[in-house]
Amino acid sequence: MILDNFQRKLRQEAQLWRDEGLISSSQHQQLADRYQFNKLEADARERFVFIVIGIGGLLLGLGVITFVAANWQTWTREVKFILLMSLFLSTAITGFYTWREPLLAKAEGKKPQAGKRVLGEALLILSAFILGATLLLMAQIFNVSGSTPELFLAWGFGVLVMAYSLSLNSLGILAIVLVQIGYWQGLGDLWYSSNDLTWARFVVQHMPLLSWLLFVPLAYFCRSRWIFGLAAVAFATSLQFNLTPLPLLTTADLAPWVASFAFALPPALFWSYDDLLFPTINYRLFQPLARSLALVCFGVFFYLLSFRSQWLAPDLVYNQSTNFVNGRSLPIIDLGILSGLAVLQWLYLLRQTNNPARREVIFTLAIITTFLAFLTVVPFWHQAINRIGDLGIFIFNVLLAFLAWGLIQEGLKLRDRRSFWSGILLFTLQIISRVLEYDTDLLFKSLVFILCGSAVMTAGLWFERRLSTASNSGGKNIAK
User: For residue 170, which of 159, 239, 357, 366 sits 20 to 30 Å off, Cα-Cα?
Assistant: First the structure.
């Protein structure tokens, strides 16, 4: 659409230049051939046709829905089943061939029609929603008892199969969202329901491992950073909520190493992640994103562990049943497999670092290893050996400040706004959180807010002026 607007404006300007004598007719023709002015009307005609087809299809769909609603009660179960499956299959097949037609035209050397690809993808997404409605109505028609988590998980896995088959980014994102809705719906059943093992309960229990095994390969099929990021977030959040490591002192009969695995495993996997571990991948597509997510994990965990409430024994005794404890003992399988994968990745990373190694790489790797060591050892020591509440609070406040300082230095060195502002905001958040957490008077709080606001504005203006000066110096050097 942006390209079309540019071509239209350029065509108008070129005609004006020709009429005013600024360019000759031959130059105007060269511009017309280069920017394909003669195809603008054909593209507009195609878009109009697709809009007409879309409006007509919408009205046709409303008519079919109204007809079905009028006769739904009189039809038998078999007729309802055939009708719903026919609707799903016809929409999916039509969407597939419409989506595939531009690819075939491009392979044959013809001009692909981008509008058909968009229309086909829209029909495929519509068929994914029809699949969910079909599952729900089939359960009602045949009196199949099922829960909301089972519906969303089955729906999500069905869309996931479609995403793998077509390598479509939109279907992959929709599949992850649906599976995550099913996970969050079923998380309460995992904690507090009976110990009956159903397939949905099994999926919820092993969601950290399934998120890594099912969603990460899909990111490569679709070449989508969005899918990889959502897969990483799904893995990290499901691991935390399945293990519930916070607060560190609870009355639940959990092993003291649970918190260490919950905190250290996500950043360890993300930082050591390398696309080249896959045999058929010869490029690093998601490694930078994975390392950014590792830094996000460090920031979140350091921030949460910097609060006093996470290290003190809870005042209220949680009445947690043995079913709750037993239900959380099963992710040990996930922890074993994911820990083995993390060890494999770190061995590969260390081998890559030694051949050859730069001082900056070794220094960064030493810092990340130190972060992981503190995340692993300090919670375990506090739970299993000796209570170190005040020392633990001090350690993670220092680590949080060091992480913020490191991000600021990285932003200054690489002239990266994202790293610089991440460090500034993290450091500011730490100061404000400490002031609000402890009992301080309003005058002191107001003073802290004023100082933080002034410091943020000053740092931002100074950083932008530094970038502007560096850009001007670079431009002068190039001109020379």
Answer: 239
